[in-house]
Amino acid sequence: MLLAFLLGCSPFEGTWVFYFDAEPAVSGDCADEDDDDSTYDTNRGMLVDIYALGSGGYAVVLEEVLTGEARFGVLHAEWLEEYTEGTTTRSNYLALDATLEAGAMLGEVSTGSWRESEGGSDYTCDSTYGFTADRITSNRDSYVEGE
Amino acid sequence: MTALWLLAACGGGYDGSWLMSFIYKAEEGGGSGQRDDLIVDIYTTASGQTVANLAGTLMTGAIEAGAIEVSLVESYAYKRGNCTYESEQRLTLTGEFSGTAAVAGDLQLEYTGRDCDETETDVSGYSMTGLRLDADPARHVGSFSNYWFDDYYYYEDYGDYDDEDFGDTG
């Protein structure tokens, strides 16, 4: 609570470097599609901007623009698209859940898709990536000379 | 005085946008002299790390005593039958700052791959000079071209092995 006070009313706001787990947790119909013995590891980061909205919510720029809000210290934001062709509806979503811990952000990003036809759901695929994030603290005043 | 305090507090004396010129170094049997100019953003994070945003490719490390070293490492291993393919790519930017407005150094890309008993290594590099821009680095956030790293090899070259390529699969 004290940390939230020190950081202001929108503690998630800012630019962050996200480091995702290399191996996602995959479920649904695609869970066995990549069932091999490969391993992958990296320190590759990704810049993510989080904006506080006038409504009290947040916008998270994570490839798509996710919107949501923070409740009891947990930020939840999501993006969803659906399109229908004939009797088939396809959906894609992206969701983020995150908390702050000692100045860092921890959480997971879930991405998935599903397809529904007249007979109900006929395909789902969900992947969840854990992440840690480090806040960018650079600001213009810290490096522009003569200002 | 305020500026000095901010520099000390944020540890970001070299933070900002830099116009960096990369000139390809000669390698055996290859050409040299190709030049690429890029805007590279340097940030400091809350944990004290230095992040360089090289046209969308983020490299992490530190600046100490006026010297920068940031890197991006990816490793991949794939087992098939009795054989294992392993690879590691390492992109490293090193440089020495002159004051807070100029930098010079190198960008090196190292590749090591092992396929069964055969090992392949490759090193290529660029010399680098940079000048700081009076610009807000935030404007460059979001350019995820990954120009430097993703155009390199390994998935394309090694992703389509047949069983016979790996000998006795048991």
Average pLDDT over all residues of chain A: 86
Strand order of the largest sheet of chain B: 1-2-3-4-5-6-7-8
- Assembly context of the chains: heterodimer
How confident overall, as mean pLDDT of chain B? 76
Task: Give a description of the structure.
The complex is a heterodimer of chains A (about 150) and B (about 170). With about 150 residues, chain A is mainly β. Chain A is globular. Chain A has an eight-stranded antiparallel β-barrel. Chain A contains one helix and ten strands; from the N terminus they run αββββββββββ. In chain A, a hairpin with a 1-residue loop joins strand 5 and strand 6. Helix content of chain A is about 5%, strand content about 60%. The longest helix of chain A is centred in the first third of the chain and has 6 residues. Chain A has a single domain, classed as Aspartate Aminotransferase, domain 1 (Alpha-Beta Complex). Chain B is mainly β and about 170 residues long. Chain B has one domain. An eight-stranded antiparallel barrel of chain B has the order 1-2-3-4-5-6-7-8. In chain B, strand 4 and strand 5 form a beta hairpin. The longest helix of chain B is centred in the N-terminal third of the chain and has 9 residues. Chain B starts with a helix and ends in a 12-residue tail after the last helix. In chain B, about 25% of the residues are buried. The N terminus and C terminus of chain B are likely disordered. The interface between A and B is large, with 31 and 42 residues.
